[in-house]
Design brief:
The protein contains four helices and six strands, in the order ββααββββαα. The protein has helices at about 55-65, 75-90, 145-160, 165-180, and strands spanning about 20-25, 30-40, 105-115, 115-120, 130, 135-140. The strands form two sheets. A four-stranded antiparallel beta sheet has the order 1-2-3-4, covered by helices on one side. The longest helix has 18 residues, at about 75-90. It is globular, with a radius of gyration of 18 Å.
C-alpha cells in the first residue's frame, strides 16, 4: 500500500434532530473511510452533554475506526466496536431488552487495499463504486426499503388528511417505526450496529 494514493471528499447535513447524528470516518494511515448515520432511541435520551444516543453511537464508532492500526478484518473491528457500544448503553442504564431504547448507527466502511477493497455495510448506508469510464455500480443494497414503504405511506396518509406539523405526522407513523425497530438484526429485517449480539 505504499504507492496507493486516495482522494476523498466529505459532506454531512444535519437533519431535523437536535444534533447532526451523521459522522465521517477518515483514517488515511490504513486507507479506511466510511460514513455513519446515528440512530437515536425512540425513548428520548440526552446525556449530561445534551448528546443524543444516535450522536453518541455514531461518534463512538467514528473514533474507534479512526484509531484502527491493525490489519484485522472490518468484521472483527465491527464486533469489537459493537461491544463497546453495548458497554456505553449499560453504563447509561439503557434497558438492552427494549429495542426502542437502543442507540445505534448504520454504517458503510471501506478499506482500500492494493488489490481490491474490503467493505462492510448496514442499514441504509450505501457503497457505490465509480469506475474510470463513469460507470456507477452499487456494491451494497439498501436494507430498509421494504420497511420504509409502509411508514412513508402512513406519512402521506396523514398529509392527505390535512396534518401538516412534524409532530402530528410523526404520531401517525410512530407505531410502524416502533415495529420496525424490533426487526433490527433479524432475518427479514435490517442490520444496524446497536450493541445487540445479532448485529454482527
Amino acid at each position: 500500500m505504499n504507492n496507493l494514493f486516495v482522494t476523498y471528499e466529505e459532506i454531512t447535513r444535519k437533519g431535523v434532530g437536535v444534533l447532526n447524528e451523521d459522522a465521517i470516518i477518515t483514517n488515511p494511515k490504513v486507507n479506511l473511510y466510511g460514513a455513519l448515520d446515528g440512530v437515536s432511541s425512540l425513548v428520548p435520551y440526552l446525556n449530561t452533554k445534551k448528546e443524543t444516543g444516535g450522536f453518541i453511537a455514531a461518534n463512538l464508532v467514528k473514533n474507534y475506526f479512526e484509531s484502527v492500526t491493525d490489519p484485522r478484518s472490518l468484521m472483527d473491528h465491527m464486533i469489537e466496536v459493537n461491544d463497546l457500544l453495548r458497554e456505553q448503553m449499560v453504563f447509561a442504564n439503557i434497558d438492552l431488552r427494549k429495542k426502542e431504547e437502543l442507540w445505534g448507527a448504520a454504517l458503510a466502511i471501506v478499506r482500500i487495499q492494493d488489490n481490491g477493497v474490503e467493505f462492510i455495510q448496514t442499514g441504509d448506508c450505501m457503497i457505490l463504486a465509480v469506475y474510470e469510464d463513469g460507470e456507477v455500480r452499487p456494491l451494497t443494497w439498501k436494507q430498509v426499503s421494504h420497511l420504509e414503504a409502509p411508514a412513508f405511506a402512513k406519512w402521506q396518509e396523514g398529509i392527505t388528511k390535512g396534518l401538516n406539523s412534524q409532530t402530528e405526522l410523526h404520531e401517525t407513523v410512530i407505531d410502524t417505526i416502533r415495529k420496525n425497530r424490533y426487526r433490527a438484526n433479524t432475518d427479514g429485517g435490517y442490520g444496524v450496529l446497536n450493541g445487540e449480539k445479532d448485529a454482527v
